[in-house]
Amino acid sequence: MLRRISAVVKTNFDRFSSEARFRRVARALASLRPSTGRGIEAKERHMRHLTICAIASCAFPVLAAADYGLEQVDQRHLNSMVENGDPDEAFIEAFEAGDELTEFSFDADRGVGVNVGEGRRFTRFPRADLTGPGEWATHFPMREGGANATSCIACHNAPFANGAGDVALNAVVDPAHTGDPSKYLERNTLPLFALGIPQRLAEEISATLYQQRDAARAKACETGSAIAQLEAKGVSYGQLSITRTAEEPCDVQIDASGLDGIDEDLVVRAFGWKGNHSTIRAFTRGAAHNELGLQAVEIVGNADGDYDGVIDELTVGDMTALTVYMAGLERPVTAIELEELGLIELSEAYKTDILTGEELFVSTGCASCHTPTMPIADPHFREPSNTPGFYDVTFPDGSDPGSHGLSFASAIEFNLAGDQPNNRIDLEDGSTHLLGGLEIDEDGTAVARWYTDFKRHDMGPDLADPDDPLGLGASTFLTRSLAGVGITGPWLHDGRATTLHEAITMHGGAATDSRNSYVSLPERERAQIQAFLENLTMHQSEEEHG
Q1: What is the tens place of the pLDDT at every residue in 487-506?
Q2: CA distances, 272 to each of 60, 107, 286, 357, 384 (Å)
Q3: Quick one: 324 exposed, middle or buried, by C-beta within 10 A (0-12, 13-18, 19+)?
Q4: Residue 312, SS3?
Q5: Which residues contact 442 (CB under 8 A, 6 or more apart)?
Q6: Whole-number Å distance between alpha carbons of 382 and 401
Q7: pLDDT digits over 37-60, tens only?
């Protein structure tokens, strides 16, 4: 390893000048490290880090050792690559920067943690009781919990980096600052893989619903009233009743009481247990603020909202890189796929159980909410998105995204069906199979197996939160995607289910009939449904970026 590192340093020293050379060497060195979760002990990773830093310091004495750890991403630098005709390089650079950001262990000098009070930077529990100058309860934006970690993968680490988290890593939050532990909410950690898929699906669903609403509005202007039946990708989202209230110019009144599982603005929000974020970017900057104490410039400007003495903790470019990285990670797969590619072996009996379990999953009604497949008409992910409802008109701090260099014209774009860097599998016939990308059906359409209807449902009183700070319903939750569910336990919003059987039988409310159908099955058939769910798994090839 030492000889390889030295060779990389020397080659790059000869080819590139100072700062640009340093960045290239940093990426080359980073590419040599195995991903977290591949059996590399923390001590071994630490020793390799020290070795790399020592070599880099000798090669480039003009650069501070602290600067080697992680560079902030310049949004305008990414823009320039797009504008100069190199969008693919912009995607790869953003992806790799996002990789480094998720794995990096931030320290106090980089702004991790917050002024909790009592001289501490981290807390596992919300501290609404600490209301002194600069303490927990006075932070802006209003703090929900934490800070409780120094890196993303401290919590997103099972079965490997960017995955889910054990119940011990649950986030405990108090969004309403009740200070009452009986009203605290617990949230289990979900995996970060291929988040571009649910965002693109949500964008296309919302765009279809907008068209249906607007067509009904035009009809109401002509005839006096109209009903918009809202349906997209085989899922019904209820209806809007539209009545004309003035003719010239036409004005209408919209009755949204018939909507099912979505908000009145028809924006499908695919992120958060309650479905309260429409974009990866919005969800990520909230998580960075609450869990890491890292405040993005776009939420606080140049202010120190967590009173830790550090500003500009995450740049607009950092947030773009994190978004692109999580959007471009490899998709969850199935054990059947892995077996067909020769990556694992399954017995014929077990494959039969999986396929039978899939049929039972449908017949018991589970697929009525966990919609198995949806087509994606345009699989190109863009950051920022150009779909209304899926980009910031203004940043949370009130500033114009364009003033920070974030614009549609220089959006980073890649194809979810073919551009992911990870899980490119070399087959025995010498060809390469992109296991990380979306599947393409016989008609050439990209197909996502995400197992959700992107709707909120009442799950019954037994699963209800103790408080309802968002006003969406204490027992109301977004249909969780089952992509990768077989390897991302514990399950449910607070990790209370330690087996898939428990997770199913704890369903209530709108899922009561499906749960009862499952419970009434013979034990053998219940086991086959579980086999099907266990088959929904994750895979990382040995050579990967994330």
Answers
A1: 999 999 999 999 999 999 99
A2: 43, 27, 10, 28, 19
A3: buried
A4: coil
A5: none
A6: 15
A7: 333 333 333 333 333 333 333 333
